[in-house]
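Hey, quick one: can you model this chain's 3D structure?
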Amino acid sequence: MAFIRDVNLFAADPVRLAAFYSDVFGFPEIEAVRSDIFRCLDAGPVRLGFNGQQAYALLDLSGRERSDNSVGCYVTAEVEDDAGVDRLAARAVELGATLIKAASETYYGAWQCVLSDPEDNVFRIQHQRG
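Sure thing. Here's the predicted structure for all 130 residues.
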């Protein structure tokens, strides 16, 4: 059986973007895998990585760099309660995130908001009720 171990985002400034997510969510850095072009945070059951632009070539992805504000994927952080959603969303905005969709109840019973980080990657913060 397979499982997802890492979720990685390309970043113009992986150090700054990793610091943003660490500051918002409190995820500690996994310093053992740190490099000049990579930072990684311990986000619980998965590791959240931030790759510098040089990683496109290292992964043979040259020519597939993001060239607009399209959304290819997004990260969802699950928190303990509705107040946690509101508190972390406010903290994220203080640190440079943009609120895309204010917290509201979803059709599947979660209290959720949608934001974009300082490099315009989309992420959600939610509390799944019940």
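One thing worth noting: The mean pLDDT is 93.
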